[in-house]
């Protein structure tokens, strides 16, 4: 089946890297979307999914570095990615602005991601052809 | 292989997860089921899926050493998953 029209997707990742397969499945799906000539409007991280945006995850070098792979993918295709602020703050994921606001000792948000409310989520689900959720399997 | 259907149910839960039977209960005969991640383990137990149109992600089958050659299950790659999700009028991720 060849697609002559361009479609767009919003992806919502709620499963954490390493404790769920969600970020890995989502990345393979996202790559296939681009390969088919379609677009990804936005990627949302919600709940435990926000851990994917942490700059402090350091897996063994022979294992997939999912935050790094996702960052590279987002940057290469110029795709905006949003970590839900309510989920992020509760899980120790902060940018410099939130670090200052809450007087924390460090910030750890990867540059490919931003921390924001999920208003754009609503907008994207209306705008995109399809919205897919990548939940944890348990 | 990709017949017409209304809703695509993407199911990544093991067969013993409550969401698994919930998904089967909610899907009708004009829907398609796509098994991903540990959802593909349903193919190791006999006949839980009935006569639905069933697809499964090839990479998840391979990772779990599940062979679908003797069954009616359509093994698809991520490209196929993109096509299925666009073909569906509605997608539900369980």
From TrEMBL, chain A:
Q: Which InterPro entries match?
A: DsrEFH-like, Sulphur_relay_DsrE/F-like, Sulphur_relay_TusD/DsrE
What is the primary gene name for this protein? tusD
Q: What does the record give under GO molecular function? A: sulfur carrier activity; sulfurtransferase activity
Which NCBIfam families does the entry link to? PRK00207.1 (NF001237), sulf_tusD_dsrE (TIGR03012)
Annotated family: Belongs to the DsrE/TusD family.
Protein name per Swiss-Prot or TrEMBL: Sulfurtransferase complex subunit TusD
Which terms in the GO cellular component ontology are assigned? sulfurtransferase complex
Write out the annotated subcellular location. Answer: Cytoplasm
What lineage does UniProt assign to this protein's organism?
A: Bacteria, Pseudomonadati, Pseudomonadota, Gammaproteobacteria, Pseudomonadales
Could you tell me the keywords of this UniProt record? Cytoplasm, Transferase
> Out of the domains of life, which is the source?
Bacteria
Main location (coarse class): cytoplasm
**Has the keyword Nuclease been applied to this entry?**
no
One Gene Ontology term of the biological-process aspect is: tRNA wobble position uridine thiolation
For this protein, the record's PANTHER family field holds: PROTEIN YCHN, SULFURTRANSFERASE TUSD
